[in-house]
């Protein structure tokens, strides 16, 4: 790996100040993930040149890729989603939340797709350097900067094989709300398609999983719902996850979430909430959840709250399930207090307010 004085080197070819755009403010309308910043980071893996090349931060621009690149034909693409936060205490500090978990998941996803994994140390340095360069784009609390590291296979030729050369790149985008409404989401139970199967790549964060999920998302939208609730791939009986979130069910003081079976994305927010919920005194269960029991428990009032959790959406209360023509309201359509308690605890921690008992925050330091 490219090093100087024992440090990973990152080259910077930055735009002069007067050529940079004005970052938006919290008052602006900011649709999620649509605003490009001034720079991006690119780092190629080229076996003939000794592997990982020196990462470069350069002005945001299109790539030139051959139409027969492996990524276009055999889908060798994995990505991550993480955020940088501005410390809400007003000390200017920039915080990442458990970024080493993203580094590890990114590498695991790459290995599952037969790709060259980005070394975790390289990943972490690149994220920090780009966030530092683009720090004016970090919206203050409750906003943030969404970070999208991506890895693609770059070899050319349509013969079916794993690429040998890869491009690792990172783009960032100012983030405000993931959903237009902050009042809770409606979720469509998908009974036809499945997202993943045992032995498949459901636990990898690869673009292919998201492409295959699009028809169900279109069905959900047509039914007036925001997201899809996925059931297991074998029996279409057990709850797996929701769109780009993991899912949790609240039974008074007990919180249940589907156990990781290999077909669910192991969310970093999920694992953080499992820990925080226990810290707060809730009983947390990772288990198997039958959708028909879930529906009965909503009807009988035993199940009091449902929420999705993920980096982009943080904690998103689910206030309605849509099952075919039936609409099932949860908690009278109101946001529940357990969801709100956990959301506040998590957000406080991410924005530097709560005590960091688990060492999850990383203050960004760039070279
Ligand atoms: C399919 C899927 N499940 C769960 C999650 C939540 O994962 P995390 O909490 O790491 O963002 C995401 C978001 O990245 C996702 O895309």
Short description:
By secondary structure, the protein is an alpha+beta fold. It has helices spanning 70-74, 99-112, 120-133, 207-212, 214-222, 268-279, 291-300, 337-350, and strands at 3-4, 7-8, 11-12, 39-46, 51-52, 56-59, 77-79, 82-86, 94-97, 144-153, 166-175, 185-189, 227-231, 239-242, 246-251, 254-258, 283-287, 305-310, 314-323, 326-329, 361-363.
Which helices and strands, and how do they pair?
Elements: E1 3-4, E2 7-8, E3 11-12, E4 39-46, E5 51-52, E6 56-59, H1 70-74, E7 77-79, E8 82-86, E9 94-97, H2 99-112, H3 120-133, E10 144-153, E11 166-175, E12 185-189, H4 207-212, H5 214-222, E13 227-231, E14 239-242, E15 246-251, E16 254-258, H6 268-279, E17 283-287, H7 291-300, E18 305-310, E19 314-323, E20 326-329, H8 337-350, E21 361-363
Defining key terms:
single chain; 367 residues; D-amino Acid Aminotransferase, Chain A, domain 1; ten-stranded mixed β-sheet; nine-stranded mixed β-sheet; binds pyridoxal-5'-phosphate
Please explain how this structure is put together.
The chain is α+β, with helices and mostly antiparallel strands and 367 residues long. The protein has 2 domains: 3-175, Aminotransferase class 4, branched-chain amino acid transferase, N-terminal domain (D-amino Acid Aminotransferase, Chain A, domain 1, 2-Layer Sandwich); 185-350, D-amino Acid Aminotransferase, Chain A, domain 2. The chain has 8 helices and 21 strands. Strands 3, 4, 5, 6, 7, 8, 9, 10, 11 and 21 form a 10-stranded mixed beta sheet that branches. Strands 12, 13, 14, 15, 16, 17, 18, 19 and 20 form a 9-stranded mixed beta sheet that branches. The chain has a two-stranded antiparallel sheet with strand order 1-2. Helix 2 packs across helix 3. It is globular and about 65 Å long. Bound molecules: pyridoxal-5'-phosphate. Pyridoxal-5'-phosphate binds at residues 81, 241, 244-246, 265, 267-270, 310-311.
């Amino acid at each position: 790996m490219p090093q100087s004085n024992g440090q990973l080197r990152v080259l910077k070819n930055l735009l002069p100040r007067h050529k940079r755009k004005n970052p938006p403010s919290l008052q602006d309308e900011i649709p999620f993930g649509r605003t490009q910043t001034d720079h991006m980071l690119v780092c190629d893996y080229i076996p003939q040149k000794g592997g990982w090349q020196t990462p470069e931060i350069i002005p945001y621009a299109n790539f030139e890729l051959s139409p027969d690149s492996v990524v276009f034909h055999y889908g060798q693409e994995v990505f991550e989603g993480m955020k940088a936060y501005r410390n809400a205490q007003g000390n200017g500090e920039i915080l990442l939340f458990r970024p080493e978990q993203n580094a590890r998941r990114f590498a695991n996803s790459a290995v599952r797709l037969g790709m060259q994994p980005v070394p975790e140390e390289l990943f972490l340095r690149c994220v920090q350097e780009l966030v530092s360069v683009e720090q004016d784009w970090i919206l203050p609390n409750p906003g943030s900067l969404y970070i999208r590291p991506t890895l693609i296979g770059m070899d050319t030729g349509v013969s079916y094989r794993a690429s040998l050369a890869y491009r690792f790149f990172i783009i960032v985008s100012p983030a405000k709300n993931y959903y237009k409404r902050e009042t809770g989401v409606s979720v469509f139970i998908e009974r036809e398609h499945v997202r993943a199967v045992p032995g498949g790549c459901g636990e990898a964060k690869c673009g292919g999983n998201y492409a295959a999920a699009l028809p169900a998302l279109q069905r959900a939208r047509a039914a007036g719902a925001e997201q899809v609730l996925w059931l297991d791939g074998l029996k279409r009986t057990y709850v797996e996850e929701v769109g780009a979130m993991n899912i949790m069910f609240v039974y008074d003081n007990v919180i249940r979430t589907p156990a990781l079976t290999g077909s669910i994305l192991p969310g970093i927010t999920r694992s953080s909430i499992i820990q925080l919920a226990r810290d707060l005194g809730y009983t947390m269960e990772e288990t198997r959840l039958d959708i028909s029991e879930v529906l009965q428990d909503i009807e009988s009032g035993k199940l009091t709250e449902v929420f999705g959790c993920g980096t982009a959406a943080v904690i998103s209360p689910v206030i309605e399930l849509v099952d075919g023509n039936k609409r099932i309201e949860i908690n009278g359509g109101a946001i529940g207090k357990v969801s709100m308690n956990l959301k506040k605890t998590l957000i406080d921690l991410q924005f530097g307010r709560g005590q960091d008992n688990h060492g999850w925050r990383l203050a960004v330091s760039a070279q």
